[in-house]
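Workshop exercise sheet. Pairs work together: one partner reads the sequence aloud, the other fills in the structure field after running the prediction. Swap roles for the next sheet.
Pair: D.N. / O.F.
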Amino acid sequence: MIILYMVFYLIEPSFKYTNTLYFSQQIIISCFFLLSLITILYYFASCLINDKTSFLIILMFSLCLHLGLLFITPRTSDDIKNYVARGRVMAVYMENPFFNSLADLDPNYPPELRTKWSKTTSATGPVFLYISAGLSRLASGNLQFEMIYYRLFISLTSILTGLLIYKITNNPKSAYLYLVNPLVVFDTIINSHMESVMVSLILLGLYIIYRSRGLSSWILSLTFLSLSSLTKIFSLQILPLFVIFTITNMKSKLHKLSSIFFSLILFCSLTALVYYPFWEGIITLKRYSEVYNYSSYQSSLFIKIVIIILTFIDKPVLIPLFTNLSRLIYVALVACVYCYAIKKGVISSFEKLVYFIIISYGLFLAFALNWLMPWYYITLISFIALHYGIINNVKYVYIIVGVTIYAISGYVF
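Structure field:
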């Protein structure tokens, strides 16, 4: 498997072959077929892993992958260049990345950071901007070091996620399903997407509440989950489930109401604190939530099916209407999930919390986005791997493999 991953060194970045800012289809197709082959090997290798397999072996294998792939330049995405550029806006120019781009501040900015998003402002959360600024300061203006620091940091958060999955489940196979997953490896190590940062914060929050149900653990867990949603807005939907999990395990109505109230206070306080240096009115939140307004042929499954049908019957004018309808369906379905969970009190155990997180996030990916990149599925894979480790049901292995192949196919279809 490592040998196949090393083949990525032979697939040169597309910008060396084209004069555009987009990745060539030949490169993307090559990556798709290589990742598909690795996924098949990944599945068969998972069949050889059981409870007696040493987690240390899996961890060392993962570390070898990370080190071996660390110096491959991104193959199908240039988001890391955008991270660097926006980190410099904050660290070097002392400007607000939500309102200023590097291209606006410095017309002669390094050509290595030039992408189709160069003139756009930051769409990541403030937590990731603090991280970006810190890495930029650490590199002291050296672009090569800056890139390496970003990749090392994202790689470490990915390894941390695998470690937390193991610490929660004590199941080496569940850690393997995340750490060695081809989509996770490709889009965290090679393409260096920030998803692994968001996921690691979620897993830290879940790990803390799994280990202890005391007040300090509850506060710390909620803090990490809130910071995750302030890294990328997608994880915001986990917070209501966490609150439902909390109140389900309380008998007194007063305690339940107090938990809801203090959860809101803590989240709002953290939000105000991290946004304060960037705040220039409510418009500050606009870019952070704009991902819901992007449009692409890569979209949620329901939206994608609707687009195909409407295009086939020559009614493309109805696509925006059905896109909004799809989002309403998502909101309605998730509301039903929350109401069911509250009424029936089913989220009483940690296993049920993870199960409902999978349902909620799965609905989100299936209905809510008309801009859905393959790496968005990394978060779902981490939850499924975690739940597999808890209940040890082989069907989750098949689900992970299916989700992986479907996500990878998003690069070409």
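Discussion prompt: The CA atoms of residues 243 and 260 lie 7 Å apart. What would you look at next?
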